[in-house]
């Protein structure tokens, strides 16, 4: 997949405008600096594919760009939600022939993942240790469900997590997850979105 020539901010392309908006919003929120040459090349690469991704901030297109437009790569995504909505790997699998592993402990959403995707799917909660039982809080907006003992401090507790149901989930460590599904030694892209337990996992 070849990169398009550099573009200008006033070229009137709505897909590129959306990409730039998200990137600038991220920079404002995090204080991160972005190399303008990289920004130009990434947006030129991603704009033609923008309508095919479900990623909230085009994460999988960034991963694909960093991988040089690779076909047949390998991903691991946990916090997979429904497998389509807000997925950071859906296009990689369906459009670029990547294989991989998805993990989603939410009992309703994991069935949606299994119906939507062809890759390996685990219903375990990826955690620092395997075979533990944790309390898991399920909320109406399923992708915001979380481990009960870990508050991500993201401002969602009083808005989208005020009402919840609890269930128990079994854990699996990242190493055990990779071993279970015979993952290759080299993982091209890993997406971790577990509502506050990311550092505990890694």
Question: Can you offer a commentary on this structure?
Answer:
- With 202 residues, the chain is α/β, with parallel strands linked by helices.
- Helices cover 32% and strands 18% of the residues.
- It folds into two domains: 12-52, no CATH class; 69-201.
- The chain has helices at 14-30, 36-46, 59-66, 90-96, 107-116, 174-180, 198-201; strands at residues 74-78, 99-103, 120-122, 125-127, 133-138, 146-147, 165-173, 189-192.
- The strands form two sheets. A four-stranded parallel sheet has the order 3-2-1-8, covered by helices on one side. It has a four-stranded mixed sheet with strand order 4-7-5-6.
Question: What is this structure, in a nutshell?
Answer:
The chain is α/β, with parallel strands linked by helices and 202 residues long.
Q: Helix count, per DSSP?
A: 7
Question: Mean of residue pLDDT?
Answer: 81
Low-confidence stretches: 1-10
Distance between the termini: 32 Å
Helix content: 25-40%
- Radius of gyration, rounded? 18 Å
Strand order of the largest sheet: 3-2-1-8
Q: What fraction strand?
A: 15-25%
Total count of domains:
2
List the SSEs and their pairings.
Elements: H1 14-30, H2 36-46, H3 59-66, E1 74-78, H4 90-96, E2 99-103, H5 107-116, E3 120-122, E4 125-127, E5 133-138, E6 146-147, E7 165-173, H6 174-180, E8 189-192, H7 198-201
Parallel strand pairs: 1-2, 1-8, 2-3, 4-7
Antiparallel strand pairs: 5-6, 5-7
């Amino acid at each position: 997949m070849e990169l398009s020539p550099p573009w200008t901010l006033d070229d009137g392309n709505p897909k590129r405008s959306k990409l730039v908006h998200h990137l600038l919003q991220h920079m404002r929120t995090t204080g991160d600096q972005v190399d303008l040459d990289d920004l130009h090349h990434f947006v030129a690469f991603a704009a033609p594919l923008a309508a095919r991704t479900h990623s909230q901030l085009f994460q999988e297109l960034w991963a694909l760009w960093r991988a040089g437009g690779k076909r047949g790569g390998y991903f691991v995504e946990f916090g997979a939600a429904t497998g389509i909505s807000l997925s950071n790997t859906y296009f990689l699998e369906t459009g670029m022939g990547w294989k991989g592993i998805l993990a989603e402990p939410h009992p309703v959403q994991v069935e949606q993942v299994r119906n939507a995707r062809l890759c390996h799917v685990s219903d375990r909660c990826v955690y620092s240790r395997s075979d533990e039982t944790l309390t898991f809080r399920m909320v109406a907006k399923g992708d915001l469900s979380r481990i009960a003992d870990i508050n991500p401090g993201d401002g969602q507790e009083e808005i989208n997590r005020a009402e919840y149901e609890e269930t128990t989930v079994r854990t699996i460590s990242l190493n055990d997850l990779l071993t279970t599904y015979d993952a290759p030694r080299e993982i091209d892209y890993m997406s971790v979105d577990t509502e506050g337990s990311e550092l505990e996992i890694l």
